[in-house]
Amino acid sequence: MDFKETLIDKKEVFRGDFLVVEKLKVRLPDGNQGNRDVVRHPGAVALLAFLDSETILLVEQFRMALNKTLLEIPAGKLEKGENPVECAHRELEEETGYKARKMEYLGTIATGAGFTDEKIHIYKASELFQGIKGGDDDEFIEVVPYKLQDVRVLIKEGKIIDAKTISSMMYL
């Protein structure tokens, strides 16, 4: 069966600082019409930043949407026209204060294909050396090293619930 839906009409219903919400009217595979709400996102990168072969950097930060502090891998959104690998280098230094001599692309995940076009490109950063921690004025982050085995335990215990962090571990 061909599952493809065909766009009939599109209306922008919200434009924020970097997100756009659209209301779509689509033709369904059976010929009927349906509606879709879609959040347009510029995309992002996330990093498995290795201090050594068994230790990665995680960041703690408050996430207002969940009203909770999460433990997750460093990540950040792509700027307009920015190459994902350049973004990975920039975000690594901004969020952790480290730079990487090696940056290896691992894969891309779709974060919520039922409602957003956001994709996160995952990289492995290694051979780290000290840079300058920066970040956005509204970003408060604590960097914490964790052993990979401990990260796996925290995921299984439900103490790490961040999807990009959990997904990234599948690449190892």
TrEMBL record:
Gene3D superfamilies: Nucleoside Triphosphate Pyrophosphohydrolase. Belongs to the Nudix hydrolase family. Residues 39-168 form the Nudix hydrolase domain. Its cofactor is Mg(2+). The keyword Hydrolase applies. Pfam families: NUDIX. It comes from Clostridium cibarium. GO terms for molecular function: hydrolase activity. This is NUDIX hydrolase. The keyword 4Fe-4S does not apply. Keywords: Hydrolase.
